[in-house]
Write a structure and sequence with these properties.
Radius of gyration: 26 Å
CATH architecture of the domain at 33-121 and 164-190 and 219-288: 3-Layer(aba) Sandwich
Structural class: alpha/beta
Strand content: 5-15%
CATH class of the domain at 33-121 and 164-190 and 219-288: Alpha Beta
Shape: globular
Helix content: 40-55%
Order of helices and strands: HEHEEHEEHHHEHEH
Oligomer: single chain
Length: 291
């Protein structure tokens, strides 16, 4: 039988050895997780059109180097394939937009982990058509009344219901078919107009007093339609109704997320600036739980 002192030494030696092994295992560097395969789709709000510096990899698309997809990829280390393109409509998910700009879903594969997009505002010329119509009407009346609503009534919202909604469902189905296991985040559009008429804004956004709520309701209706299509397609909807309140095109530089029609700091008016793109990234990451 071993001497008690010798037995104690052996026990201590074994304990030290076991501790060393355990410590060695504990300090081994953890294997880094594979970066997300991230594909960014969508229109000029996704592309960051007009925000410097420009990404010249696809000049026709007016894509920015600091659009919200690139901000998200930079913060998460994701492998980004960015095929966002200014003026894209839902049909351009499955059809070529320009000769050298193929259908956007071509970038999506079965290995794609994350997809983000904004789309729908260009269908039926919803944004541009309504802004041009209401802006010209507002100039004629000097900012009084609701001439745009009087002239166009439910024309724009009817087109959203009858045409944009089924087009959104079809586009999202095409995306899901290419990447059945991906997380898909569909972003709404941040507010362009304030909730109420601001007389000091008329020189920057020449919309008549009564047509500010008319345009605001149109944008809210479009966003609600996008949200419905997203949820029915198994996608996550990123809502900006509260987050973008008080950051519309009438606010001063440094506060606004959207540039005004006149007197703004972008070559592409009524679109997000760099701050807006960054805040869109913030909100999307928060909704998706991305660190």
């Amino acid at each position: 039988m071993p001497h008690p002192a010798r037995r104690l030494r052996r026990t201590l030696a074994a304990a030290v050895a076991a501790s060393a092994v355990a410590l060695g295992l504990a300090v081994q560097p953890a294997q880094a997780a594979d970066p997300l395969d991230y594909v960014a789709l969508g229109d000029s709000y996704s592309a960051g059109s007009g925000v410097s510096p420009t990404d010249f990899s696809s000049p026709l698309c007016l894509r920015s180097q600091v659009n919200y997809p690139k901000v998200i990829a930079g913060r998460t280390g994701a492998r980004l394939t960015d095929v966002t393109c200014g003026a894209a409509q839902t049909k351009h998910f499955t059809q070529a937009q320009y000769p050298l700009v193929p259908p956007q879903v071509n970038a999506v594969t079965a290995d794609t982990d994350l997809i983000t997009l904004t789309i729908g505002g260009n269908d039926n010329s919803t944004f541009i058509g309504a802004l041009l119509a209401c802006g010209s009407a507002g100039v004629v009346t000097g900012g009084y009344g609701n001439p745009c609503e009087t002239l166009h009534g439910s024309r724009f919202t009817d087109a959203v219901d009858e045409s944009t909604y089924p087009a959104l469902k079809s586009a999202l189905a095409a995306v899901r078919a290419k990447a059945p296991n991906a997380r898909i985040a569909v972003l709404g559009y941040p507010w362009i107009t304030p909730a109420t008429f601001d007389p000091s804004c008329f020189s920057k956004l020449p919309i008549a007093r009564g047509d500010i709520p008319y345009l605001r309701n149109l944008q809210g209706h479009l966003n609600d339609t996008i949200a419905r299509a997203a949820r029915e397609s198994g996608a996550v909807y990123v809502d900006f109704a509260q987050a973008s309140e008080g950051h519309d095109a009438c606010k001063p530089a440094g506060t606004r997320w959207i540039e005004p029609v006149l007197g703004g700091n972008s070559l592409v008016p009524v679109h997000p600036n760099a701050l807006g793109e960054s805040r869109m990234a913030d909100r999307t990451m928060a909704v998706l739980g991305l660190g």
